[in-house]
């Protein structure tokens, strides 16, 4: 069997700047989940470039398991004293916080400082250091990899236990309802010959493969706005071209579906989404769940019927649409 060879890719060839490229990329749902899996946390992005004291945190998250703040500071270069000072300022201004420092390379003194901070601070403060790398095999798309350089004492064991508990023991009432609903949805979708969901988890989304890497179907629950949603989510370097290619066929797509879609190109991100929503649908009204489940199952099935072949045929070479294109 012929095997490929791993080749390391300079992060700056993919993410030219931290604030315009790497931070928006990491804040996307799929990518923050990769970081969550590496650390054994359940992270939900709250804001980007959020003011915290005299500095601005690159990404502000909530740790679902502890309902505490998580601040992420990014560097696409070797660690420096300026960023270390910012991290210390953040931890001084917050009562309980997890600090995640991501860089392309850690200096030994900065790694030692994080280790020391984890030793002298109580369990309300946690410091992680991670190096981000990009690798490819042959001519494949670069794949990101996070390596933990520094972590709190005994974190591996605690994180593994916490991750298992999160899958079976949601920590809030909303998370419990989300997990219960997704279990019912997975069961209702099971007879479909093709569609399969990811393992249901206590979160506001669930993913469904549609047969092409970088593109997926998704079910959504927005508890704040009392809506359910189904989306086609595109999240690779050709996402904008894919979106424009599909949008040129929007009228026919709407006719085949029998309902209108919301087309979100998301110009501030690399990803795009195409959505349909069920409004005035509070998750807390469990007596309406049969209605929600029927709507979501029918909508996901319709999306798959209309988009699966189109997704397979996408070329990613469509010329950009005019700015005034509807």
Automatic annotation (TrEMBL):
Residues 177-310 form the DUF4268 domain. Pfam families: DUF4268. This is DUF4268 domain-containing protein. One of its GO terms (molecular function) is nucleic acid binding.
């Amino acid at each position: 069997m012929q095997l490929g060879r791993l080749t390391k890719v300079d992060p700056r060839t993919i993410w030219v700047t931290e604030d315009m490229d790497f931070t928006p990329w990491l804040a996307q749902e799929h990518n923050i989940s990769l970081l969550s899996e590496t650390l054994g946390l359940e992270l939900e992005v709250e804001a980007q470039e959020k003011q915290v004291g005299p500095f601005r945190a690159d990404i502000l998250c909530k740790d679902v398991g502890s309902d505490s703040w998580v601040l992420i500071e990014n560097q696409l270069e070797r660690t420096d004293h300026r960023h270390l000072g910012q991290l210390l300022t953040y931890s001084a201004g917050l009562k309980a916080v997890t600090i995640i420092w991501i860089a392309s390379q850690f200096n030994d003194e900065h790694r030692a400082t994080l280790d020391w901070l984890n030793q002298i601070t109580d369990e309300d403060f946690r410091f992680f250091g991670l190096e981000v790398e990009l690798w490819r095999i042959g001519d494949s798309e670069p794949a990101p990899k996070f390596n933990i350089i520094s972590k709190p004492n005994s974190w591996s064991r605690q994180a593994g236990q916490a991750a298992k508990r999160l899958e079976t023991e949601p920590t809030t009432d909303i998370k419990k309802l989300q997990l219960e609903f997704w279990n019912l949805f997975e069961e209702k979708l099971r007879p479909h010959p093709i569609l399969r969901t990811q393992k249901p988890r206590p979160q506001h989304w669930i993913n469904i493969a549609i047969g092409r890497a970088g593109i997926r179907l998704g079910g959504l629950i927005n508890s704040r706005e009392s809506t359910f949603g189904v989306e086609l989510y595109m999240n690779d370097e050709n996402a904008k071209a894919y979106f424009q290619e599909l949008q040129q066929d929007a009228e026919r797509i709407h006719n085949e579906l029998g309902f209108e879609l919301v087309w979100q190109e998301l110009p501030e991100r690399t990803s795009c989404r195409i959505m349909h929503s069920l409004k005035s649908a509070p998750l807390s009204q469990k007596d309406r769940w049969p209605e929600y489940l029927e709507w979501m199952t029918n909508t996901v099935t319709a999306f798959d019927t209309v988009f699966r072949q189109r997704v397979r045929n996408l070329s990613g070479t469509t010329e950009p649409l005019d700015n005034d294109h509807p």
